[in-house]
Amino acid sequence: MPEDHDWEAYKVPPTRTPVSERTTSVPNPVDYFQTAFNYVLDTPVSFIRGLIEGWQNKNKFYYYHQKFRRVPDLSQCLEGDYLCYYEAEAQWRRDRMVDQEIVEIVRERMAACKQREGPNQFQNCAKEMELLAQVTKAYQDRYGDLGYHGNARSCLMKQKHRMMEERKAAQEN
Prior knowledge:
Helix content: 55-70%
Keywords: Electron transport, Membrane, Mitochondrion, Mitochondrion inner membrane, Respiratory chain, Transport
Region (Disordered): 1-24
Number of strands: 0
Strand content: under 5%
InterPro entries: NADH_UbQ_OxRdtase_su10, NDUFB10
Order of helices and strands: HHHHH
Largest sheet: none
Structural class: mainly alpha
Radius of gyration: 37 Å
Number of helices: 5
Organism: Urocynchramus pylzowi
GO cellular component, one term: respiratory chain complex I
């Protein structure tokens, strides 16, 4: 390789980027428009948004963690207290939806275990099967035979009848 380089063929890059020189003395109207837009619209809007976001960050409210207070059961409501009846019915519906989701989650866990274990599912998924049997039995005891239009009153009557049958069976033994 020769020692003398052709400096014209391989120029060394400039050490600093040159500043472009203006060819005219007339100012660019785009610069004025951008500056005016920044001071008239963007700055006040950004300032107000910063204030609002700061205020909202102090009072964070997580919608997915909504917690309802427990209301009295239908058996604890006074006779003729229709507001208490309504609240107890709403509480019962929420409890039923939660119980349905619990059954569904346990069912999905068992299905995932069966899929994962394959032929060894009876040995390795026994705990999930037992849990599913307990959860479905508890759900069936409480909400079974109520149908789609079941309500808190019919559920309470079902539980009352079941307790009476258990007492009668215990007295006979």
